[in-house]
Every structure is written in structure tokens, then in C-alpha cells.
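B., you asked whether I could sanity-check this one before it goes into the benchmark set. Here's the sequence:
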Amino acid sequence: MRVSLPKTPLFSASFKPNIYFPSYPMQCVLADATHILRPLIDWRTCSRTRKGLWVRISANSIRSKAIVRRWAKRRVQEAIREELKARHFGMHGIGIKAPKKEVRGTMEVFVRQPTVAAEWGDLRTEVRRLMDAVVYMAEAKAETKMQKEKARS
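And here's what the prediction gave me:
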């Protein structure tokens, strides 16, 4: 189940709680049985731990040179990393002080052109709003799961 997160002028995002999904290029390789990289990608996908938060950032909508797109992606990635750290989560969404607390799922962030010229404070504010929604949904999903387990007992 994909959940669209609040859109901002800087990026749009979606979150799939408790679902771990490979990136689009990996999906294309896995779909082609004759692709030369398929065994490697299949092994990487299967061996990756299904814990924490998988974050995929795409800047394809930015119509600039590749270096500008990579720079915009790194800015968003660093803002997400700092916001997770401020919430006492590690880089992959696993709690630092309470290891059992974690954000589980895949978050996709699609960076837009205004991110390039945005101030760092504005970017952090938008990422904070994004992470508020992600953490809220992850905690709600975990709480629902605990209630189901208690009902079974």
C-alpha cells in the first residue's frame, strides 16, 4: 500500500510502510530473465536486510546538468539524515536509544527544480514535515500490528 505524503514545492514523496521494494532500475533488470546483471541484482535484493527505512531519492525532474541533480539529491539526503538523527533514529530508521523502535518501509522522494535554489532552513522545514508524516504512519502501523497480536492472544 503506497501512501502519498504531503506535496511541497521542493519535492513530492510516497511511503510504503512495511514494504521493501527495489529501485526502478533494479526492477527493470529483474524483469528481464536474460539480462546479464540479473543474478547480481537478484542476490543484492534478496540479501539486503528488511529492516528500517529504505530511502530512494530521484532528481530526474530537474532540468540541469548531472552534477546539479546529484547535488540536489545529496542535500535532500543530508536533510533526511539530520532529521532522523534529531528524532533519535540512525541513518536507516532504526532507533538509537531504543533499538526496537524503528521506521519500517520504503520512502521515495522526487526532488523538484526549486530545491536547487532553496535555502537550507527551508529544505529542513519541508523535510521535517515529511518525516512527521512518515514517523506518524510508521508508529500507527506498528500500533495496529501490536493490537492485532494482543487480540490473537
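One thing to flag: The mean pLDDT is 83. Otherwise nothing jumped out at me.
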